[in-house]
Amino acid sequence: MTVAGLSGVTKRHGETVVLDDVSLGFTENRIHGLLGRNGAGKTTIMQILTGQNFETSGKVEVFGEHPYENDRVLRDVCFIKESQKYPDMFAVHHALTAASLLYENWDAEFAAELVEEFALPPKRRIKKLSRGQMSAVGVIIGLASRAKLTFFDEPYLGLDAVARHRFYELLLADYAEHPRTIVLSTHLIDEISDLLEHVTLVDKGRVLLDGDSDELRASAVTVTGPARSVAEFAADHTELHREQLGGFLRVTLSGAIPERSPEDLHVEPVSLQQLVVRTTQQATGERGFVGAAHERGTRS
Amino acid sequence: MRRLLNVSRIQLVNLPVVLGLPLLVLGLVLLANLAIFAVINDSARASEPVNGAVVSFYFVLLSVHLQTMTQIFPFAAGLNVTRRTFFGATTLVVLGQSLAYGILLTLLRLVESGTGGWGMGLRFFGLPFLVQHNPLLQLLVYTAPLLLMSFIGVWIGIVFKRWGQPGIYTIVIGAGLLAVAFAFLVTWQQQWASVARFFVEQPSLALLFAYPFALAAVFAGAGYVTIRRAVP
Questions:
Q1: pLDDT of A242-293, one tens digit each?
Q2: How far apart (Å, rounded) are the C-alpha atoms in residues A163 and A169?
Q3: B130 - beta bridge partners?
Q4: What's the whole-number mean pLDDT along residues A134-149?
Q5: Which spans are transmembrane here (chain B) (predicted)?
Q6: Which of A194, A215, A236 lies at the terminal end of a domain, its last residue?
Q7: Containing domain of residue A81, as a range?
Q8: Is A102–B71 a contact, with Cβ atoms under 8 angstroms apart?
Q9: Which residues pair with A14 in a beta bridge?
Q10: Is A63's Cβ below 8 Å from some Cβ in B?
């Protein structure tokens, strides 16, 4: 069941098109990845789904209703972002108390455990925390709120690699016990690719990929080997990317792993990160080409 | 309704600062005044010293609620509190706080008159034009301007959240222009006498309760309209 979705949503900011006819859906009780480069429109998508920003046109639905100014919907939604603001006079425990008042499923015990886990000083003012500690406050609120729909928008700024991995572990463990819909927006794709059950890739306000991560991983392969035989093999497939090193060639090809391939070639499934990078690069290339063709067309 | 109350409680999570800061300012101003009047020697003192320092209390309230909007609103909105709910919760807090402070000021005025002006004839709370003989009316007269100042603070805070610095400049310049236009008009029409008469002839209850209360409602309405499209 789709918990939150956009269909044909466009968002314009003056002349700039931030989202261009975006359709996507987040399914109940799954971990979704919302991936894309900086400025791709990830944050805008989450802001619109949480009623903090406004679509120019299109249909927005969360729990079957439009989220703007809708308490029935928003009380079950938690949106943790890197830029979350805290009142200057709030200490860590104030922010947690405030969050406990907002979220019905708030687990105070779990929150207290997390405060210890991330070694946060509960009485220190948030303003005085380090960047990483401040991110930890957001992470704790996001986890302990146990909202039916939780967005994490790059929540890890300033957290070191160890703390980030601890966050992923805690998220996965808590998700296993309390299934809910979680949307992770990040560009540290390699770090979280094992967590994601579904992936949506956006670029320049458009959806490039949308599917189960297993299917997506199976949708492309990398083929490595002597340049000539790789090139021959690749000729029958859609090529996403090519890189040459001396006599060796590595190509990323669209499609499942072929049942048979020449013995001198090394064929392996693509990683999520590679797929995202290649797909984005290819889209950029095509757009450039289409743009140029269009320009020629108008001139004549 | 429960959510409204919970969001009100968020604004009071840091209770000592929200409710205590204005009281601290009030206490300090009162103490400073008592100290000053105690050292001024008797001959230099007016027969019954009157002091307008209590006004500072009203301005502290304005700044407290300006910060409700610039500090707590972005936090709450970030956690998906709707603008409408946040505004409703703020209204509850403002009403409760103004009424509580109104009661406090009324009581302090009673103490002041009971102790002969803190033992030195000082009129800090019982400003001549403020004094009502009915305690209930006295309460209204203290409370209505508190409401007004709070809602002015709320509205300015929302304008800042929605339009930033340019919004604030627009308010300041706009208010200045209105004042100049008013002064120009009255001077040109030679109507200063009737302006003065208006204020003198109005019953003090209208000036100190009815008008501030009505204006508070206007600012509250303006705040509600302005917050609907504010992006935290």
A1: 888 888 999 888 887 777 777 788 888 888 888 888 888 888 876 554 444 4
A2: 10
A3: none
A4: 96
A5: 12-40, 52-73, 85-108, 139-160, 167-188, 208-227
A6: A215
A7: 2-215
A8: no
A9: none
A10: no
